[in-house]
Design a protein that fits this description.
Blueprint lengths: L5 E5 L7 H8 L7 E6 L1 H11 L8 E6 L8 H17 L6 E3 L11 H8 L6 E6 L2 E5 L9 H4 L2 H18 L6 E5 L12 H20 L3 E6 L1 H6 L7 E4 L2 H12 L4 E5 L5 E4 L16 H16 L4
Parallel strand pairs: 1-2, 1-4, 2-3, 4-11, 6-9, 7-8, 7-9
Antiparallel strand pairs: 5-6, 5-10, 10-11
């Protein structure tokens, strides 16, 4: 009898839409063993309310961890993620799917937490969106702080992670990457001349650093023009801040956009949306993102370039 692949699934924020979309998605998930880590009472309630008949041969295992979600939802969220990560690092599960989480104080989301959890590795957030692949040079950073967080070395590192992903997962040889500019149209006009000149020089240094590392990075390019063409001629895009990259990605893919963490020692993917507290528990949340994540993880795990 063929052994099913085992994939870990963290429940995310238990009071959000994660339990609902996970229960709904199981009916269309690939045949595998899905190991669900979280508050067993929350998972059981979600499956009772929203789960449909699962495909023949599929197996679901619930591992109840952490405090009660009703008493300590943030503690339940942390326990779910920590235990799921442990299962992957220890080899009992092949890869990780995460349901949406509520960011912790200090704006730490999955990217930052997973990088810390795996030894402070270089990591980057990638959005997979209807053929558009956008990696972020900064993640959950206030806009006013973005210029201070950018460095040629950091941008070159994200570019290298994106190129490695495209080569390993999508088998694209020497992918061409676009680096977006920070200022509108990359202008250095009278009002912003000094800042724009300085920032464009930083980005030019980043391009040089990436090319020295063997990455075909080009730019900086105006974000509006590049996304208007759906990044035609480029296999990946490096955006400098969260909304610069995620707004076009989500406009293209909607609920089916995926969040992949680059640089980890294992494959991890999540729906590209948040916890949607405004509709949690109402039964109207779309499972498209979770279905897409669970459908993508077998391919992602099999080709993960950091294995």
């Amino acid at each position: 009898m063929r052994t099913l692949k085992r994939y870990a699934v963290s429940l995310g924020y238990p009071l959000g839409i994660g339990p609902e979309i996970l229960a709904k998605a199981m009916a269309e998930a690939p045949t595998a063993e899905w190991v669900l880590f979280g508050d067993e009472a929350v998972i059981a309630t979600a499956f009772r309310r929203w789960a449909k008949r699962t495909p023949p041969g599929q197996k679901t295992t619930i591992v109840s961890v952490g405090p009660s979600a009703a008493i300590d939802p943030m503690g339940a969220q942390r326990a779910s993620l920590d235990t799921a990560v442990n299962a992957v690092l220890e080899g009992s599960c092949a890869a990780l799917v995460t349901a949406p989480m509520l960011r912790e104080p200090g704006a730490r989301g999955h990217t930052e937490l997973l990088a810390t959890r795996t030894g402070g590795r270089e990591a980057a957030m990638l959005m997979e969106a209807d053929g558009l692949r956008v990696a972020l040079a900064t993640v959950h950073v206030p806009l006013r702080d973005v210029p201070k967080r950018l460095s040629p070395q950091g941008i070159a590192s994200v570019s290298r992670l994106l190129a490695t992903y495209l080569e390993g997962v999508l088998h694209q040889k020497v992918p061409r990457l676009a680096l977006l500019g920070l200022n509108p149209h990359n202008d250095a006009g009278p009002v912003t001349r000094h800042a724009a000149v300085r920032e464009n020089a930083l980005l030019a240094d980043a391009v040089l650093a990436a090319r020295k590392a063997g990455v075909d990075l080009r730019g900086p390019l105006p974000a509006d023009a590049l996304f208007a063409s759906r990044a035609k001629g480029y296999q990946g895009v490096v955006a400098l801040y969260h909304d610069q990259g995620l707004i076009p990605a989500k406009l293209l893919a909607g609920h089916a956009a995926l969040n992949v963490t680059l640089g980890l020692p294992f494959a991890r993917v999540s729906p590209g949306h948040g916890i949607a507290l405004d509709i949690a528990g109402r039964g109207v949340a779309s499972p498209r993102g979770m279905i897409a994540a669970m459908s993508f993880i077998p391919l992602l795990a099999a080709r993960w370039p950091w294995n």
